[in-house]
Amino acid sequence: MDNITALGGDVYEIDTRMAGYAGITAGYLILGDRPCLVETGTSTSAPVVRDALASLGVGPEDLATVVVTHIHLDHAGGVGDIARFFPSAQVVVHEKGARHLADPSRLMASARMVWGDRLDTLFGELSPTEAERIVALGDTGAIDLGNGRTLSSHYSPGHAKHHVGLVDSATGDLYVGDAAGVYLPETGDLRPATPPPDFDLQTALDSIALFKALGPQRLLFSHYGPVDAVQDTLDRSAEELCVWVDLTRQAHSEGLDLDHAIAMVRDRTKERYTAMKADDATAEQFELLSGAPSNVAGILHWLDRVSP
């Protein structure tokens, strides 16, 4: 299948084809004794992911674990569907996200407030997962991949209060979710992801520092793909966060409303990213993943809390 890439170490990147796009959201299959899917993608992507797993030899009874870095719908929207397709799999999530996977009604209501009618085309509907199948992680935890191989979980809020990073003991891969931002492999651009309501600058920087301290061999971005230049990329993640926060803080101190703040920050950051100067499709892809409206709104929400 053209949406599967072997990354070595029995790890396979699966393009979940979010909303029909290529290269937007990745799921990863760790194909050991106890096969594990990291990130499901959206609900509408679930059949794509199921078919990819089938082509890699993972049938309905074979998947042992589904892990999500956090419960935003581009990462975990497919959990309920994947759980139904793979009835033996446990679903692993940070304890702050567990109840929303069991009962998604509040999460879906708030997502619909943000996205409106676009919700259905972009994400679809997160279906509930039976509570007894959900394993809730504390600040650290370990997932058994079989044969002594583990995926260790490290609480990394800042982007979202239910976010974890995951380290594979066999490969040294670190699944960064959105805590290190959004990476666009075609252009090498990296941009922060700072949506409301959970964004907090110091917490986000602390999470990036934790990722550096873990000493991973490679970063696996949910958006999108593997990056070998670990320390440089994490340094850049922190730098990008500070650039966006400084500009938004300036707009905030000038009393700009949300729309004007977004316009100012978008204008002053666009030179940083090749994607924003590229063709419209690439720019649109980047904006969908790490949109200025969402980023600026999240930073303003935080600023209103810390310096009203």
From TrEMBL:
InterPro entries: Metallo-B-lactamas, NDM-1-like, RibonucZ/Hydroxyglut_hydro, ST1585_MBL-fold
Keyword entries, A-Z: Hydrolase
CDD domains documented for this protein: ST1585-like_MBL-fold
Protein name per Swiss-Prot or TrEMBL: Hydroxyacylglutathione hydrolase
SMART domains referenced in this protein's UniProt entry, alphabetically: Lactamase_B
Keyword field contains Oxidoreductase: no
Pfam families registered for this protein in UniProt: Lactamase_B
GO MF term set: hydroxyacylglutathione hydrolase activity
Assigned EC number: 3.1.2.6
Domain Metallo-beta-lactamase: residue ranges: 24-223
